[in-house]
Amino acid sequence: MQYDVIIVGGGIIAAALAESLALAGASVLVLEAQNAGAGVSAAGMGHLVVLDDNPAELALARDGLERWQRRRAVLPAGAEYRECGTLWLARDGEELAEAERKQARNRTLGLDCKLLGRAALYAAEPNLAPGFAGGLLRPDEAVLYPPAACSWLLANAQALGARLLEHCPVAELAEGGVRCADGREFRARAVVLAAGTASPELLPGLPLKPRKGQLAITERYPDLVRHQLVELGYIKRAHAATGDSVAFNVQPRATGQILIGSSRENEDTGAELNWPLLGEMLELAGSMLPALRQCRILRAWTGLRPATPDGLPLLGPVPGRTGLWLATGHEGLGITTALSSAALLAAQILGRKPELDPAPYWPQRFHQLSGSALHA
Amino acid sequence: MPEAVIAELPIRLNGETVRVPAGITVAAALALAGQQALRLSVKGAPRGPLCGMGVCFECRVTIDGRRHERACQRLVADQMEILTHD
User: In whole angstroms, how large is the CA radius of gyration of chain B?
Assistant: First the structure.
């Protein structure tokens, strides 16, 4: 049988895309090498956040957040959607001035936000260490549990007729279809590579590098933290050009557990924990939220974010390869932008006009993808 | 023959003072006080001591303000504050 679209990968981007395409009446086959949603989709925090440092990133994240918000009522309870808001913390006057600039930018964009002075900040988060100058609250941002959201999207797609094959690694992207490791071949008019950090194995030369991160989760400590807390210094720490870094990023889960992040490593691509870096991350978290030092950590783990050189995802056709599309490279914003990425790409695959301008995310912006380098 | 004298000490259990034998574990003290369920699981099911040796983490209670202490791994102490279902 010939499918309309084969999606290689079964993470949240693939799942959302499968749902969008199936909803439009397309026949869809999803091929997942291992367990759907168990890769980078399961490793992250599930923080739905709109970062405003780049117009294209902002547009996709904002559309993504709004799509999650609109579907909030129909999400399953297991997806643990909680509108806890994001609270950006300012440690000093300089960061508070940045919070004010961020507030002005957000207001121009029509994004709801509230500047908190010292007293309001401590009323909102009484367990913070002393010494913070204030904060900026983005009240409508949320958190969810990505593996459950991913399963839900896939189940929706399947209910609309999409087919999911797990434990079916793809060995080769052929003309007009794919060949699986077990020898099976499937044909489709369009093939979408959405395999996260595994994507370059099928398309060598793809400008995509894994950026490793670590998280830890505690036992249940209800009310210790109320908002997703991020330091305003996050961007400068997290996007430092080279080297390993940690940033303060703490999230209250629906269960009362506390998720503690975050870290970035550019060279290490193994699954093992980096204990010294984990120590630095926890030390930073403890310095900002001293009560955390009394908390029992249940589990710590790593994940590999699929990162592009310019921080924007690869969403669009592969130049010179008829019928081959990319949907990967979301780094840390794949959960936030899953629904917007899916809508954007599905429209293009189906020959419709997308709601957002698709050009900033097209793969052809990279010279590796603009010429003949990837031709089979 | 006179009965052996067992030293007792007071602990505070969910706000009430009870006297328990010195040298026993918190889990044993809670059993003597008739408390079987010590906490609720994330889905609301009652949980209590199972392995009695610090492995299963089912007997967690709050001791002196510290949450998630294993009752089977702590000995009672004078005026120890114990909260179940916290």
Answer: 13
Residue of B nearest to A295 (CA): B67
Dump pLDDT digits (tens) for A327-375: 999 999 999 999 999 999 999 999 999 999 999 999 999 987 765 455 5
User: In the numeric block, which tokens belong to residue A153?
Assistant: 């999207």
In the block, residue with structure tokens 């900026």? A136
- Beta-carbon pairs below 8 A across chains A and B: 12
- Whether the CB-CB separation of A288 and A135 falls below 8 Å is answered with no
Contact B60, B69 (CB under 8 A): yes
Q: Which of A266, A256, A257, A250 is nearest to A299 (CA)?
A: A257
User: From residue A150, how far is each of A32, A41, A46, A303 by CA, in Å?
Assistant: 13, 8, 11, 16
Measure the CA–CA gap between A165 and A94, rounded to whole angstroms. Answer: 52
Token pair of A86, please?
């994001």
Q: Which two tokens stand for residue A3?
A: 């499918």
**Single-letter amino acid code for the residue at A139:** P
The distance of B24 to chain A (nearest Cα, Å) reads 24
Lookup result for tokens 């279809």: A177
Chain B interface mutation, best of A253, A255, A296, A297, highest count of B Cβ atoms under 10 Å:
A296
Cβ neighbors of A356 (< 8 A, separation 6 or more) are A59, A60, A63, A340, A344
Q: Is the peptide bond before A372 cis (omega within 30 degrees of 0)?
A: no
Q: SS3 of B32, please?
A: helix
Q: Is the pTM of this model over 0.80?
A: yes
CB atoms near residue A301 (< 10 Å): 13
In chain B, whose CA is at the least distance from the CA of A221? B67
**pLDDT at site A235:** 63
Chain B residues touching residue A293 (CB < 8 angstroms): none
Q: Is A255 on the interface with B (CB under 8 A)?
A: yes
The one-character DSSP state at A325 is: E
The answer to whether A229 touches A87, Cβ cutoff 8 Å, is yes
- CA–CA distance, B25 with B39 (Å, rounded to integer): 17
Strand partners, A170: A180
| Of residues A204, A223, A299, the one with CA closest to residue A260 | A299
Helix (H, G, I), strand (E, B) or coil at A246: strand
Per DSSP, the three-state class of B85 is coil
**Predicted confidence band at A376 (pLDDT cuts at 50, 70, 90)?**
very low
